[in-house]
Q: What sequence folds into this?
């Protein structure tokens, strides 16, 4: 997903904050879809693995799409797109966005009907590629258009989406729910006392876990994208995060957001990349 870096002029502070919140939620959706797609395609490609893991991944992706992605698209059609469609510059853009929604919904149906893991993985990949393109249009074209119009209140549109989604909390804050303060250094003894293992050896701990390379994600939406991916990690499963630096501020935010539900294992400590395995603690452990 790309984000336009040109200067945007907002008609009010509330509208600017609303656009940030929408983009943050887009990033979370992108992260969640990326993880689920990677999990499904990896399971489908694992010939030695049973079909059970691929089927669970397919089912998880379909359920997430029906609970999150499709309702989000319908909320946009109800609360946001009509405002853009009323602007001369937005009519053709909204028509294209509505066409994207129709294809996205069709791909979710294909996923739901897929029996063969490879077919399911293909549908998931197509869904992911289209969704990333769709979010880029919204972030870089639709939102700036709405933001620049004095006749449109993006804050009101956001509240309308919130209402349509039945009080969905994802829009209530922009990225950075927790203060961006790096935690104090943790010793190996403290790690052991809290059941955490921090090492630089790499090894086989990462085997079977999907990988998210945060280095290619724009900084403004990086944390939100990672949180979206972490939200999708099931208890007992994990995510390998590749970062351009030691992500101490992110880990502090994650500890606050997930209340210690993730353990952190360092697989590589720079200098080009930091690789961490974040594992969601299984119930009863």
A:
């Amino acid at each position: 997903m790309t984000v336009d870096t040109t200067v945007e002029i907002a008609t009010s502070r509330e509208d600017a904050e609303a656009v940030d919140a929408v983009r943050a939620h887009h990033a979370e959706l992108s992260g969640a879809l990326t993880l689920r797609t990677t999990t499904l395609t990896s399971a489908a490609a694992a010939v030695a693995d049973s079909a059970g893991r691929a089927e669970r991944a397919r089912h998880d992706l379909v359920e997430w799409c029906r609970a999150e992605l499709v309702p989000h698209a319908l909320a946009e059609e109800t609360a946001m797109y009509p405002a853009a469609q009323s602007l001369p510059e937005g009519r053709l853009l909204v028509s294209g966005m509505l066409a994207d929604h129709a294809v996205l919904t069709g791909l979710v149906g294909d996923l739901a009907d897929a029996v063969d893991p490879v077919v399911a993985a293909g549908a998931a990949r197509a869904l992911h590629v289209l969704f990333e393109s769709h979010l880029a249009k919204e972030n870089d074209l639709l939102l700036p258009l709405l933001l620049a119009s004095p006749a449109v209140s993006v804050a009101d549109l956001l509240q309308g989406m919130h209402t349509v989604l039945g009080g969905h909390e994802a829009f209530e804050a922009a990225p950075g729910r927790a203060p961006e303060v790096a935690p104090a250094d943790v010793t190996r003894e403290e790690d052991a006392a809290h059941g955490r293992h921090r090492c630089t050896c790499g090894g086989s701990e990462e085997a079977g876990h999907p990988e998210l390379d945060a280095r290619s994600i724009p900084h403004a939406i990086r944390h939100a994208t990672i949180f979206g991916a972490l939200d999708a990690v099931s208890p007992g499963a994990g995510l390998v995060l590749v970062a351009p630096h030691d992500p101490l501020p992110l880990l502090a935010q994650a500890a606050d957001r997930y209340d210690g539900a993730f353990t952190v294992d360092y697989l590589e400590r720079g200098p080009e990349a930091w690789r961490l395995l974040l594992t969601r603690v299984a119930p009863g452990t």
Q: What stands out?
A: The first strand starts at residue 211 and ends at 213.
